[in-house]
Write a structure and sequence with these properties.
mainly alpha; Arc Repressor Mutant, subunit A; two-stranded parallel sheet; 20 helices; elongated; binds glutamic acid; binds zinc ion
């Protein structure tokens, strides 16, 4: 590795990846790749009740699907592992011992109801709801007395007092917090496990991470985490806090927003290149216009071109990139979309005929149904159009027994129709829709018997409308 630069993605596998997380992962990865640095995937699985193997596997699969790879992470070792936070507990505990020995941390015996009462009081008095520091000054005797009461102890980090904590965020610019507003925070819970604030910070520092890109919901954690890392004698990484993504109705995208989960989008057929091209522009203005292949995106990524206004996820833009991605997708990527839905041997020809008219898997499957299955009963307008051609027109077409485009058109013309008046009813009768690929190649795919059946249905409709 030629560069000391390292970034990471540190997901908690408690739910499905959504577009917001995926953007964070993509940007962190692009940043590392752009600067020939390391990229680490750390699984923050400390919430054991909500993390499970299936979710971790799904997360890894989603990242790989997008084309994200890592130097250190599950299945790949760059010497800074382990890469699951639960397997790093010994590092966290060693840090706690050291912090306590050096006076940077102290046991806190407050119970949850006591802390809650403190928070409520602060809120009523319109003060920041922070820990009062009640246990910060206990001497040995005071501690012994609380232990004797049977109170379990958490461990709190002693924040510096009376100072401002400042740093320059790579996205949001200069940041400044009053340390006194933040209060001493828990680094080891009463059950002995590390808190999010401490494990996340200790891991970043020990894994040599130089830039943390993450959601802006973590901004207020940063002064605490920087102070903690500094107290350990380590160098805090730089931080860049990305604005949250907002959906169509300005509501933040959340894990609950199933439609915007990476899984949900994948299952509908969105291609990784479509998502990546969309995400590359969501709050990042460093990329040139036009489609970029994923492995060419690192050259397009510039951390100083990250904006801090909320970024809107626009479905139309996503669909634009989906079109771009689809037009470049190899056949092998799209064939599974129609697997089992065409006559054997017609898979590739079907795909070739319909692919320009398809955005998602459901569209492709609808075309297979139109070509080989059952057409829906036409609605009023469509029925009227079919009837408008007249029974004689359909009679003439029925004399053509092979699915031959030229002969069908010839027959239609001989019945006195041309242009739209001929093509619209014909298309409707054969495909059930006015939109779609050219009829000629579609007819080559269709079976003569099915064609006759559809022409007969049209004739019946036209005759009954008389
Ligand atoms: N596990 C945290 C999360 O998913 C990590 C935040 C961070 O990137 O530091 O929100
Ligand atoms: Zn306390």
């Amino acid at each position: 590795m030629t560069s000391p630069i390292a970034s990471r993605f540190a997901p908690s596998p408690t739910g499905s990846l959504h577009l917001g997380n995926l953007r964070t992962a993509l940007y962190a990865w692009l940043y590392a790749r752009r600067l020939a640095g390391r990229f680490v995937l750390r699984i923050e699985d400390t919430d054991r009740e909500r993390s499970d193997e299936a979710k971790i596997a799904e997360l890894i699969d989603d990242l790989r699907w997008l084309g994200i790879d890592w130097d250190g992470g599950p299945g790949r070792d760059d010497g800074t592992g382990p890469y699951r936070q639960t397997e790093r507990a010994a590092y966290h505990q060693a840090a706690f011992v050291r912090l306590e020995a050096e006076g940077h941390a102290y046991p806190c015996y407050c119970t949850e109801p006591e802390l809650e009462a403190e928070r409520q009081l602060a809120l009523r008095q319109k003060r920041p709801p922070r820990y009062s520091g009640r246990c910060a000054g206990l001497d040995a005797a005071g501690r012994a007395a609380l232990v004797a009461e049977g109170r379990p102890a958490s461990l709190r980090f002693r924040m510096p007092k009376g100072v401002r904590l400042q740093w320059t965020d790579r996205v949001r610019g200069p940041q400044s917090f009053r340390a006194d507003d933040l209060g001493d925070f828990v680094i080891r819970r009463a059950d002995g496990t590390a808190s999010f604030l401490s494990s996340n910070a200790i891991d970043d520092a020990q894994m040599g991470i130089t830039l943390v890109l993450r959601g802006e919901d973590h901004v207020a954690n940063t002064p605490r985490q920087r102070a903690l890392i500094t107290a350990l004698g380590l160098t805090p990484p730089e931080y860049g806090h990305l604005p949250l993504l907002v959906g169509p109705n300005d509501a933040p995208l959340s894990k609950r927003d199933g439609a915007m989960s990476v899984r949900g989008l994948r299952e509908r057929g969105y291609l990784p290149e479509a998502l990546a091209n969309l995400l590359l522009r969501l709050g990042h203005s460093g990329a040139t216009d036009g489609y970029h292949a994923i492995d060419a995106m690192a050259a397009q990524f510039d951390v100083s071109a990250l904006g801090h206004a909320p970024a809107h996820v626009d479905l139309q833009q996503l669909n634009h990139w989906q079109h771009e991605a689809l037009s470049r997708a190899p056949e092998a990527v799209l064939l599974p979309w129609i697997a089992g839905r065409t006559p054997v041997g017609l898979e590739a020809a079907t795909l070739a005929a319909i692919r320009k008219n398809v955005l998602l898997i459901a569209d492709a499957q609808a075309w297979c149904e139109r070509l080989y299955g059952q057409l829906p009963v036409p609605g009023t307008e469509h029925a009227a159009l079919i009837a408008s051609a007249g029974a004689a027109f359909w009679e003439a077409l029925l004399s053509v027994t092979a699915p031959d485009y030229d002969r069908l058109v010839e027959a239609g013309k001989s019945a006195g129709l041309k242009g739209k008046a001929l093509f619209q009813p014909l298309r409707l009768a054969l495909t059930g829709t006015l939109e779609g690929p050219e009829l000629r190649p579609l007819l080559q795919l269709m079976d003569a018997a099915l064609l006759q059946k559809r022409l007969q249905a049209a004739r019946t409709l036209a005759a009954s409308a008389l």
